[in-house]
Write the structure tokens for this entry.
Amino acid sequence: MNLLSSLNRREFLAAGAAAGCGLALPQLASADDTLNGTLIRGKAEHVISIWLGGGMGQIDTFDPKGKGDPSKKLAGSYYDSIETAVPDVRVCEHLPKLAGLMDRVTAVRSVHHKVIDEHAAATNRMHTGRPISGTVTYPSLGSIIAHERGAASDGAPPYVLIGYPNVTRGPGFLGTRDSYLYLTDTSQGPAGLTRPDGITPRSQSRREKLLAVLKRNADPTTDQRLLDYDAAIEQSLKLSGPEFMRVFELDREPADLRNRYGGEFGQRCLLSRRLVERGVRFIEVSHNLNFLNGIGWDVHNEGILNQHKLIQELDTAVAALIADLEAKRMLDKTLIVITTEFGRPPEFDSGGGRGHQGTAFSCVLAGGGLSHCGAWGETDEIAKKIVSNPVSVPDFFATICAAVGIDYHKNLYDGDRPVPITDMGQSIGELFA
């Protein structure tokens, strides 16, 4: 059997299996994944990606259903739902501020993958768009966008992580040049760019001159890893000056605006807006710092009791971010993305909390110049199964890439090995209509 007939046979079998499950078929790369035969290219310039580590329950946030009862083991939502600015689209009662802004938002309710019970593997999947490989370290979405678009200005890094560093957020085979600058405390800024107290501007200048002499006298290299490392050092030296470091001085913002954003997570979101203004292309804002309820979004057993505090904090910060970007006429140029490693089942566990669910969960898009519709995709009456418009993780990544003008059908290269940039994802074309 030749390769072509083998591929056709696999496509036929896949189509039969999907039809048997009652799912809409994912399309092959074709004109159906374009607008008028042209590859979809949005006009967003920046991405602010908000990461909810632990697993945000879709049924308790952006895909509410009929109310359940933990004491009776009755599956359903933990909270009541409320109307939004979009007719027939409802959200959890603890998202009132975002409810009024859902015409600028699309909750993609039909995201799915096959990773269920392993947080690290699911976190990797939702950052790289692929399963973990024993032979390839794949780049994160942030590094892919940094690689393809670079920084939006010379005085900024392309990628900033506000949270703890991790290989899943990294550049993988793309190399050091497409990695991130990170910080964990909004009041301090990136520790790696802060000079020790004893290093004056004069002594720093002497060190840089000595480094330049050593580089001139060194044997030239064509090793890309060394070249990328040198480029990273040069960028760090440039960013360690006062001009870029001022972006972390949040007290320059009006006090009432800072208060509207809320606590530390809100201040991270405010900092992300300042980083966008400075020219950073991709910012990840991590919310998995065990704020408020001690366990983050991993609400097993009694952990669910204070889940509402996390949801309220998310509502306050993201609503303030949307309104702030819109007031500064930056919302259409900035795509806000909310992701998590998986969702939560409608059933309650023995302690009244929830387990893990990767087969159907919600991720959120806002701004970015998209044609928002409040919600995309549909799950069944208990948010357990997808009933229309399934969106794979590669599809979700392709939509983000399309929004920022990246060719989501192209290949990246690990050495000589071609690697599809989104693992053959198809963008949600209706959001670009």
